[in-house]
Known about the structure:
Pfam families: Oxidored_FMN. This is NADH:flavin oxidoreductase/NADH oxidase N-terminal domain-containing protein. One of its GO terms (molecular function) is FMN binding. This protein is an alpha/beta fold. The chain has one domain: Alpha-Beta Barrel (TIM Barrel). Helix content is about 30%, strand content about 15%. The chain has twelve helices and 14 strands. It has helices spanning about 50-60, 90-105, 155-175, 190-195, 210-215, 215-230, 250-265, 290-300, 305-315, 330-335, 345-350, 355-360; strands at about 15, 20, 25, 35, 45, 65-70, 105-115, 130, 155, 180-185, 235-240, 275-280, 320-325, 340-345. The strands form four sheets. It has an eight-stranded parallel sheet. The model has no long low-confidence stretch (mean pLDDT about 95). The protein binds P-hydroxybenzoic acid. P-hydroxybenzoic acid (PHB) binds near residues 31 and 79.
Amino acid sequence: MGSLSPLDPLFTPLRLGSLSLAHRIIQAPCTRMRSTPDPSAPGVWVPNDLNVTYYAQRASKGGLMLTEATPISRDAAGYPGVPGIFTPSQIAGWKKVTDAVHAKGGIILCQLWHVGRATTPGMLGGKTPLAPSDIPMSGNALDGTVYADAPPKAMSVEEIKGTVEEYAAAAKRAMEAGFDGVEIHGGNGYLLDQFLHDNVNTRTDSYGGSIENRARIVLEIIHAVTQAIGPDRVGIRLSPYNYFQDTRDSNPQKHWGYLCSQIAALPESARPAYVHMIEPRFDEVLDESEKIDALETTQEVVKPSLDGFRNVLKKGGVSFIAAGNFKAENAGEKISSDGADAVAFGRLFISNPDLPRRLQEGLAVNAYDRATFYGASPPERGYTDYPFAA
Ligand code: PHB
């Protein structure tokens, strides 16, 4: 018997709805931009053999993996090289990924994504991006477009209803592709987070104004997706303290507290298995201390924390995954203190294909190379060439 390690809490089984996890180290969703363009369809990227290798390398027995954020439709996409889940070619490509993960005993969910205003007409075959309101983001897109020069269109109620249906249809296609379920992407300043944040959503109809209205589309999508594929294989990712993509909510604790209480109160037949949240300290651009300082000076947040959300959800029987700047030093404690049921790792899973084993055996971890996160030449570099431990 080995001695007790602070990481031991990560290595106990966990039931998430219908999913039986052997350990609590989850691969976080990470955009990697290494898929293949479909020659017959502009704007369509398809999972390829290199993508299969990448996911298969990171699969572990009873380990849960989340795919990179995956556009649910042609109109939902924001970046090149990102595989969607809306064409037969993509379903076939993903099927190879899910088969390879299952062959190693892994569990994999497809993260369903709509970027909302975080895109450009150039990415959408000339169409105007859709968002809750017509407020553009600041800055430039990857293709050089100044977002303010191509502002989004505020969605009609019909377009909102259509998008809800698209999520359900994408969830069904994910099941066809062999996924074990789906995670609804409700964070990081993309479409659903744009609806939730009160600095982005300025609608005056039943999808804007109060938090009850801003959360409506999210609850409708949870309902549609859980009815499409069953509730016990559905999760949702949220980022209440997000700043990325120009989101700044006036009261995250109150507003996401409302959303969590609604999720917790759903009947079992429509209640997702888990909520996955990003720690307030995490930011896509700022480092940890800058983010905490910014939260403390600009928002009415006494102490930014996920604990209140976790507690409300736990009472409703909804499991909780936490993500954002976890490492060997702080991950076990998150579980032993009951702050979460499982912990997701993004950057460390990028650089360590065998991360669960390294944490279990106390092995050193490979450092990550940020310059290769979003593509590299050749594409293997910083993707499938990180070494396994000896
Ligand atoms: C990104 O591509 O930078 C990205 C995508 C999805 C996220 C966050 C960041 O949720």
